């Protein structure tokens, strides 16, 4: 559906569509029209015009998310277009803003905010080439380092060194861009472009490098910390992190798999867990917590009870929670504030059905996203699930892949889901009747794709027809076999794969060495 454009926006498009004319005419353009021209240029992917607009930006702030978001002149949200051409033009234009020889007194820009850029799976830009979070981190760091080198070598006006622009960004650091980002952060105080890290994600980093770079980011400004793949952070390291670094503004924390493992707990470990809970309790802004694939059996209360601010997002998927854990969650003050909840990997119908539905009932007035993947939800549980979901009128997203449900049960469930007014995204399992008889759940990776694809497509069409007949074409229904889209993982999967192969090779070499020593 085409979005309406105002006459102002149509005029802006016409102006920037002739790049040569637009670039020559910028000096005559009123300052308050720059945001309008920027969005029009971004829509038309006029890289040279974008560059010159940013190079001559006349306003105090440059907030990409707001500039590209819905506006009076054009409601379409372009902040999900991570177009490589456009974003590179933005960043090089920012560098040239500093180097531009116009009087420093004309330069008003103080804050650049790149945090509103959203990485999504489907891109609508014409060039189809995206610049993800890792690449944005890489390019900004590179430009800052190059800018410093140029300023040291060239004869610049003294006013250039007085320019100070805070550049707010969500950094994404791996082994491959680590040295460059460290270099940029170390020289931050000398560079006119000041990297201000609002959110930090690290994958494929040694603990030593992670601890070093996290201190350079200025943790006092950090709002989101994600330590995800191949950072071997265990509980004792987390305690050291929290004891040595203060995160006063932290709102969101994601910890890597196996950070906690209560199966091998000692009394010292119990005290360590309590200390970590207390430290998290001091983070008064913390409202989002992801601890998937840790073993937390019987310890959720010890970890979460010190928190003074209610959680809005909780991911405890595959954490082996027991009845006591679920009872604590259902009765805690967090339950009434949870907007996003992930309990995947727990046998909910068998272990704690009534407690789970109590939790669902308490969070129903605010819950927007619910993930129940691989939870052993069967046909006999669907009516109870519908009853539990009925009050969740604000639900936007429901993910339940990996559950042994038949096509008939899915049709019944979809008929109900049409009644949830705000629902936009559903991720459903391959129906059980598409797999061979005798398949066991959870299905291992080797058998995941061994289903009747033709039958699945036919059933998927029927499910979509249910949505269409209920006038719910706004709901996207899909079956992501290997998990939901992860933009960061997609961008760095080659590096991740190489890291895994290297780790496997090192393990194999150690085993071979040990085996040979035994033979001797």
Automatic annotation (TrEMBL):
Keywords: Leucine-rich repeat, Repeat
InterPro entries: LRR_dom_sf, LRRC14/PRAME
One Gene Ontology term, aspect cellular component: cytoplasm
UniProt family annotation: Belongs to the PRAME family. LRRC14 subfamily.
Protein name: Leucine-rich repeat-containing protein 14B
